[in-house]
Amino acid sequence: MKMDKSNLSVSSKGLEPHSIDADASILIHLSKIGRFHLLRDIYNEIIIASNVFTEVVEKGYGLPGSIETENGIRQGWIKVHNVLDKQEARKIATAHKIHSSNAETIQLAREIRASILLADEEEVRELATEFGLKVRRCLGLLVESVKQKLISVEDAKNDAKRLIEEGYRISEKVLKEFYNIKESEEARKNGSSNT
User: Within this chain, do residues 152 and 124 fall inside the same structural domain, yes or no?
Assistant: First the structure.
């Protein structure tokens, strides 16, 4: 069953600068490993661009992330927003040779003054960083989940393995950094339990 999105898109005016913007890759990857719920558990509410809705829910209906995203929208913790300055998004796409949906995700994050942009695609992360946006990827979300005691260190390690098995692209350097952070969290946890 397709969801009617006619009433989903709203203006991004007046949003607080603590908004969390997510791109399609985050929704898809977390769904693939059964951790979509972490988005709500950590952030309470996230915002996606209308083109992310189209990509994940409409065009990707039945694929990982589609049902979860649709349910999140119905439950009210995922909000769909239109990009106000589509011309600026087109300029970003052209100037940086990126897909228009990625440019709109970045532009939306700028417009809503997102405190974090959740994105896994390298081109999105790099450009968002150039625009001064704070970016977090799936692995960072897993680390945050451990810090908030939503999942165990061992769960985070297993989730990282499953992400890679599902086709998640990651450099050895970033994976090593993830394991170092994970190990420091484990040491912190063990240290605090010994006191």
Answer: no
**17's tokens:** 């600068």
- Token digits for 43? 């952030």
**In whole angstroms, what is the distance from residue 116 CA to residue 102 CA?**
15
Residue 13 reports pLDDT greater than 50: no
Q: Would you state the pLDDT for residue 83?
A: 96
Cβ–Cβ under 8 Å, residues 102 and 83: no
Residues 74 and 165 in one domain: no
**Of the candidates 32, 20, 89, 79, the residue with the CA atom closest to the CA atom of residue 60:** 32
Nearest-CA neighbor of 29 among 167, 158, 140, 150? 167
State which residues form the domain around 116: 20-136
Q: Which pair of tokens denotes residue 152?
A: 């165990």
Amino acid at 139: L
Mean pLDDT (the chain, rounded): 86
**Do residues 127 and 98 both lie within one domain?**
yes
Q: Is the pTM of this model over 0.90?
A: no
Confirm if 79 and 48 have CB atoms less than 8 A apart. yes
Question: Within this chain, do residues 117 and 132 fall inside the same structural domain, yes or no?
Answer: yes
- Is 113 a residue whose pLDDT tops 80? yes
Residues 108 and 37 in one domain: yes
